[in-house]
Design goal:
single chain, alpha+beta, Nuclear Transport Factor 2, Chain: A, four-stranded antiparallel beta sheet, 6 helices, 4 strands, about 35% helix, elongated
Length: about 150
């Protein structure tokens, strides 16, 4: 009887020691609820391809054909300063400083894009095509037109 108690006690002690060690390893990768430095780093390594993935060549071709007569929002004078461009983040609400820079996406460019999800629209903001949820002002996806 004493041997059985010692075995159960030893097994519980092992579970406690090794279980806490496993939990500590899981949190050391930055996936906890702390105020980590890389809070938006998960966006860069996502496996989901994004809304505009696969349409970059079509957008680039359209941009090349219309480079002499670009609509407001894509012209060089409409580019965002670096401080505002950093505020354009996927899955975040569009800040007020960018909300007043929204331009409609031209219909001939919309034809190259997949249909937007419900409550969303393709808009132009400072050289970017942005898929914006119009109801919540959340940036679903965006692509910088000139960079690809």
């Amino acid at each position: 009887m004493k041997l059985a108690r010692w075995m159960v006690g030893g097994a519980l002690a092992c579970c406690l020691v090794f279980g806490q060690n496993a939990l500590a390893q899981g949190n050391s990768e930055g996936h906890g609820h702390g105020k980590g430095h890389d809070k938006h780093g998960d966006d860069e390594g996502d496996n989901d391809q994004g809304y505009y993935h696969g349409h970059e060549k079509d957008i680039h071709n359209w941009y090349g054909e219309h480079s002499g007569n670009l609509p407001p929002g894509l012209a060089r004078k409409d580019r965002l300063p670096p401080g505002l461009e950093k505020q354009l983040v996927r899955r975040n609400t569009l800040p007020p400083g960018l909300q007043n820079k929204i331009q409609p996406c031209p219909p001939e460019l919309v034809r190259y894009l997949p249909p937007p999800p419900p409550d969303c629209a393709n808009v132009l903001i400072g050289g970017h095509i942005v898929l914006l949820n119009r109801r919540t002002n959340v940036v679903v996806d965006f692509v910088h037109v000139e960079l690809f």
